[in-house]
User: Fold this.
Amino acid sequence: MKHQFDIAVFEGDGIGPEIMEPTVKILAEMATAGEYALNFNVVPAGAAHYAATGESLPEASMDAARNSDAILLSAMGLPSVRYEDGTEISPQIDLRKALTLFAGVRPVRIFPGQKTPLNMPEGKEVDFVLIRESTEGLFHTQGKGEVTQDEARETLLITRDISEKLFRFTFGLAKERKQQGRGPGRVTCVDKANVFRSFAFFREIFDAEAKKHPDLTADHAYVDATALWFVLKPWDFDVLVTENMFGDILSDLGAGLMGGLGVAPSADIGLEHAVFQPCHGSAPDIAGQGIANPLAMILSGAMMLDWLGVRHDNPKLVKDGTRLREAVEAVIGKGEVLTGDLGGTAGTQDAANAVVDMLGQS
Assistant:
């Protein structure tokens, strides 16, 4: 009997629906050939929905997300559609907070054939994961900061409860990567503990968790130095963990190392739920033209398969997640079918078809 998994699908804004369509099709085809079934439930949310209805994340959509086995979310938000306070529509952040998705997982990989602005030394490989706390930090007062005529304030929040969950997840991931031969088992806490008491608190909780994992190496780095080292020696990193805003910034820098946001997937994971989405925005300037890069969305789908497989002890799902990731990487590495952001001329469907063809060869 096949395992059944319900997937809530948020198609997003701008190019969101265009990159979601081929991703869902690929995942559905893989499920048909596998030992599991994926039931996709498309639900409304986003800036366009807000403009039409006054709701950015309807309660029914929130319920569907909460009751699903996983959530697949495309790019959301439109610069032209904002709340009354001037902030952009961002249901993805509302989902993170409502479902306590504290671990934002941002993989950074540079493999043979992939274009990168780095001058890569021979024999070096970049394969690390940045874990961004995704529910508090400097995003805590999102939309609720204090603003007067003369000053504005936002509140950074770091709690012991969320930090302990975050660090347990991070060390667990480092252990998994070490067992898979993908990393040395090194965890780096990225903070600014030399200036802010909140980050000294963050580091103290990290160190307490590190003592429970003598088989792993734990160290620290200030966020400004980490940005420098991302460029000078990214191959030294394995797993990094940091606060929400620092992670937001560093994850885009990591995407730049890989050649752009078009190949940067992500996941936001909690104890019971997980959202999988590309790191890039909705790019309304190219929406409807059929030229958007779907690869980050497809890679996020691969991350979803892997997470479901591990969570439900389903080796076929894990295997398919790896197959899909490797198929995308092979397409990028060959460089024959690339969208404009990667220096090619292929359209959205061309890139997706290339992934399908590569899957057929695996």
The first strand starts at residue 3 and ends at 10. The domain at 1-103+265-362 is CATH 3.40.718.10 (Isopropylmalate Dehydrogenase). The mean pLDDT is 93.
